[in-house]
Amino acid sequence: MQLDSPTTLDFFNASPSVPRDLLVWQHAIACLRAGIPVSLLLVVSSSGSSPGRQGFKMSVAPGSMVGSIGGGIMEHKFVELARHGLAEGPREVLLREQIHRGEAPHNRSGMICSGQQTLLLLPLHDDHLPTLRFVADALQHNRRAWLRCTAAGELHAEAGPLPTPAGLHRSADDAWEYREILGFREQLTIVGGGHVGLALSQVVANLDFRLTVLDDRTGLNTLQLNPYAHEKRTVDYAALDQVIAEGLHQYVVIMIFGYRTDGVALRQLLGRQFAYLGVMGSAAKIATMRKELRAEGYSEEQLARVHAPIGLPIHSRTPEEIAISVAAELIRARNAPRG
C-alpha cells in the first residue's frame, strides 16, 4: 500500500541519529570551557560477558556525568575514582584491568559476569580542547575520523580512515596507546524501503548503527519520508555488489516486495563476508529460494550464512513487530563472541 500524502508520516519528526558518544565529548567540552575539571573514562578492551564493550565511554565531572562504561558497581567505583582524582588536584592517567569473577586473585571488579575489561581514566585539560572539538564536529557531521590516546595523556584525532589497527597496543617498556575509529562502527544496509524497512529504520535508530536504505523504486513515499536513515538511495538490485561494502562490521537486511527481486538482490551478496546477511520472507518462500540457489551451484556453506527467514521467532505480523524481531537478531549477531 502506498501512502496517500506526505502528511501521513507527520508523526515521524526524528532526524538521523548521531553516535551516542557525541554527548560525552560535548559534555567534556562544556565542562572545560566553564572551568570545571572533567575526566574521560573509556573501555579500551573487553572480552567475555563484560557489561561494556570496547569503545564505551563517559565524561565525569564533580556534579555531572554523561555516557556509560557498562553500569553496575564497576562503573560506580570508577566514577568515584575519577571524582576523587578531580578533587585532589594534579591527576594521573590510569589504565586498569577489571576481572568480573569473584574468585579472581586480583583486579576484581565486584561483578561476577565472567568477562573482563581494561579501563582508561584520562584527566582532561584545556590543551585537549582542540581535539575534543574536532571529535565532536566529526561525529556531528558523520565524517570519518580516528582517535589516539597514549600513556602520557596525549589525545589526538585526525580525519580519514584509521591507518593502523584499532584497539589497545602495549610495548615492552610498559608504554601503551589506544586507537579507535570514531563514529558508528557497525553499518546496516536495509535493501527495501517499504513499510517494514521504515519500521526497522525507526527501531535501529537508537542502536548505534549507521543506516543506509536502498530501493529500486523511484519516488517511493516510505523511502522519501524515512527520517531515520543517514543515507537513502535508489539503486538497481542487480548492482548491489557494487553498492554494498563487505566486512566484519557490515550488516545487510533484504526486505523487498517480490520473490524474484529478493533473489536478484541475494545473488549479488552471496559468497561475500558480512557480520549479518538476512532475507525476509515466509518459510515456504525461503525454502523455494534455497532450493533454487542449490540447483545453481551455491554451496551449503554460503547458504548457511544467510539468516532466513529473518528475525527471532516471536510470531510477528505487523511491520513494527517484524522490525523488533529483526532488530533483536541484529543485536544478537553484533554481541555474539567472535573467535
From TrEMBL:
InterPro entries: FAD/NAD-bd_sf, MoCofactor_Util/Proc, XdhC_CoxI, XdhC_Rossmann_dom. Pfam families: XdhC_C, XdhC_CoxI. Signal peptide: none annotated. This is XdhC/CoxI family protein. Residues 188-330 form the XdhC Rossmann domain. Residues 31-92 form the XdhC- CoxI domain. SUPFAM superfamilies: FAD/NAD(P)-binding domain.
